[in-house]
Amino acid sequence: QYKFRDLTIEELKTVNKTYPNFTFSMNTYTFKDGSQKDLLNFSGTVPVKYGNSYNIPIRLWILDSHPFAPPICFLKPTVNMGISVGKHVDAHGRIYLPYLQNWSHPKSTIVGLIKEMIAKFEEELPLYSLSSSDEARQSELLSYIAKITEGETEMKSKSKMGGDKNKGCFNKITVVGAGDLGIACVLAVAAKGVADKVVLLDLSEGAAKGGTMDLEIFALPNVEISKDFSASADSKVVVLTVNSLGNAQTYLDVIQSNVDLFRGIIPAISHYSQNSVLLVASHPVEVMSYVSWKLSAFPKSRVIGVGGNLDTERFQYILTNLLQAQVLGKDAWIIGEQGEDKVPSWTSCNSDANQTETMAARNSKEKVANRAMEILKGKGQRSWSVGLSVADLTDSILKDKRKVHSVSTLAKGCCNINSEVFLSLPCILGTNGMIEMVKLEEDPLVQEKLQSSAGSIHDLQQQLKL
């Protein structure tokens, strides 16, 4: 079944000569979409010097298009080893390296890949020794990895925390990130009373500090703080608020740091809550929604960003209450990108009106919209404001309200956008996330602005390494 069998065999001979401790076999690999394929693979240890000398266990899967496609690489920890999630390793032990990103035959080889792997592991050790009390928890993760790499198709997580109590109408929300925004989301969701349980997943290093400590001191009902991904099990909505606080110099570096951060979060979250809706509040929300969609392999309907929801609510309030334009307010939306490039738009249209009446109505809307946008300027999006918006969205999802919100969603196919980008558009939300996109009034200027945003976002995404 290998297209380039002779080339593959020759390369594996070279690997065996260089690393004689590796053992080779043919096993079934399960891909993210559930499809399976019998693939050659080998496992063994590679020597790494990190103060002391360590033997790091790995397993490499050779795709049937090898050597023109890179291998799929995993750590293979034992029950007393924990995975150190970092720049090159995610929570499930999958290994990501520049060498894999830039794979090109004949320049790229498996021996070259392993050499880079060793070099990167010597900068950041990927495994650590677990205490005996943690070994039981580790066995669940190893079981999941085994299901991916040993051909088992049933990948439903049975969390100890979840049990039967999370079945039925139990509404559980997890907020990932214990910064100001994460805590604001927890408080707003708790105040709204939409969830039976709210988990705050604190991924920061060290003991609980600041707001997290205060949440523990003043213990809110049905709010749990945890550093363990398994605490998120069976959540119906997972809110992502984390942002990298690295020393990146350029805007692209900042976003890449966020992508690297998400690589260690999204696979674990999607494992423990396989039927959840991912609600992205991290910046930039359009790009991070796209990244979450790609890393989770969830259907597009179950990955949305907070997008223009807050600005839309403010916009409608200004039109209705401050400018006394009640008729316009209910059909007004802020769409496109968050920030300076957001666009006012409308979802109602009088199809019976003649061209003159249509133009007059459009001019009237434009004048009122410009006044409303001026008032909207400078209001910013404080953590507690975004938290209220997140609570509003989770309320619509958990209660299956079928309410229309302006949220970041996959915009491909809308307004002649052909690239995979997320933009804010009016969408009906329910239990399974985005149910349907609401048709916008046709306006060439709005379409032009959306296409421009889509183009710049797509160009940025092309520079990122997922």
Description of the structure:
This is UEVLD enzyme. One of its GO terms (biological process) is protein transport. It catalyses: (S)-lactate + NAD(+) = pyruvate + NADH + H(+). InterPro entries: L-lactate/malate_DH, Lactate/malate_DH_C, Lactate/malate_DH_N, Lactate_DH/Glyco_Ohase_4_C, NAD(P)-bd_dom_sf, UBQ-conjugating_enzyme/RWD, UEV_N. It holds the Pfam family Ldh_1_N. The structure is a single chain. With 466 residues, the protein is an alpha/beta fold. The protein folds into 3 domains: 5-129, Ubiquitin Conjugating Enzyme (Roll); 172-297, NAD(P)-binding Rossmann-like Domain (Rossmann fold), CATH 3.40.50.720; 308-351 and 359-463, Lactate dehydrogenase/glycoside hydrolase, family 4, C-terminal (L-2-Hydroxyisocaproate Dehydrogenase, Chain A, domain 2). 38% of the residues lie in helices and 22% in strands. The protein has helices at residues 5-18, 98-101, 110-123, 135-149, 180-192, 210-217, 251-263, 266-272, 285-296, 309-322, 326-329, 355-376, 383-398, 444-462; strands spanning 23-30, 36-50, 52-62, 72-75, 81-83, 127-129, 172-176, 197-201, 223-226, 237-240, 277-280, 303-305, 332-336, 342-346, 403-410, 422-430, 433-437. Strands 9-8-7-10-11-12 form a 6-stranded parallel β-sheet. A hairpin with a 5-residue loop joins strand 13 and strand 14. Helix 10 (309-322) crosses helix 12. Residues 150-169 and 350-360 have low confidence and may be disordered.
